[in-house]
Structures are given as C-alpha cells and as structure tokens.
Amino acid sequence: MTNIGNEFGQVLNSVLTTGEGAGLEELCQGIVTRYKNVGKDEPEVIYVDRDCCSQSGVSSVTKLFHPWRSAVRLDSFHFMRRFNCGLTTEHHPLYGTFCAKLSSCIFEWDQEDVQGLKEAKRGEWKSSHSGHEPTEEQLLATITSGEQRRHCRRRSRGVEDIRRMISGLLESVWELTDTTGLRLVNHDTMHHVWEVQQKHLECLQDPPGLKLYTKVV
C-alpha cells in the first residue's frame, strides 16, 4: 500500500499492489495532473519514507513526480524507525526513552516560541502568587509537554549537530540492560545501521524559509 497525503493530513490517493513499487508512476503522475487541472502550485517539498536521495544525485521520487521540481526530504519518523533494527526488541523497558532521546537529537525547539511560552506562564504564576516572581526551576515546572508541543515550533538541527548528538546517544546506551540483563542495543547491528543512516542526515534538513506549521486558534 502506498499513500500520498497533503499538508492537511488528507489522503489524496493510494494504490494497493501485489509487488513493491508497482503502479507508482501512474499514482504520482495522477497527482501531478490533478494539481495542474485545478491550478494549484506544485508542493515545495515532498516527504518520503524511502528513496529520498540517490548516488546519481537525482532521487527516484523526483522522477516519479516529473516535471515538478519539489525538494525531497526523508520523513523523520521513518528515519528513527530504522534504528529499531539495531535494538534487541521494541518491548525493552528502555525503548521509549531511547526513541524520545533520538527525537531530541534530530529536533530543537524554537527558542523565541519557548521564551514567549515562559513569559505567559510567568504571568500566570505571578497572578496566582501575589505578584511573586518564580524561579527558573519553578517556571519550567509549570510548563507541560503538551503545552510546549502546542505553542512551540520545532525545527531540524544542522547535519553535524545531529551526527554529534546521535553518536553521543549511542555511546551512552551501548551497555544498558534491563533487570534481566537483556541489552537494549545489538552492538554489531547498530554500528551498521548508524554507518548507513549518516548519509541521510542531509535529507532530514528543513528546506530554508518553508513554513511547516499551520497557525490555529
């Protein structure tokens, strides 16, 4: 099953085939034709789960959507899922923690948004504490993860920052085990996964100037 969706989460088309890759050209060209017929501009970027880049320099996705000149990027969720191959099991007690830290290696919070949220929470604190100023620790404790996701944007870190942080994360988890002694990471497999995936760090970069968030009330 291959699906194509838009920025609003709507599925524009899908194809179910008996073999991987079959029918994709007709699927993609159908979308190109529909955009052209209604006078809609081609998308600035296409996010994919594979084939984001090529040794020849031209992604197969670019060829499928010809003549569009949209940038092609690798979806971060699918990038992170590739690291599961280097773990002993997804049922390991430390699996969730590893995934959360891996996400933090890829994304950073917009500091202007974070500062705006902190100022709003500071005002709430002072209103409910007779005007007293909260400490930084108290202020941060009032911000829930849900509030931060709702009010603050994230963006991808630079290639070298991602490389450095993921390398540091892997170094920190090599020897971690659960209470039975089961390791979180399979050393040999994870070494190979990381070696291969480093070439895709450029594919995770947000296109310059592209607005990836929709403002809601």
Automatic annotation (TrEMBL):
Protein name: Transposase
Organism: Knipowitschia caucasica (Caucasian dwarf goby)
High-level lineage: Eukaryota, Metazoa, Chordata, Craniata, Vertebrata
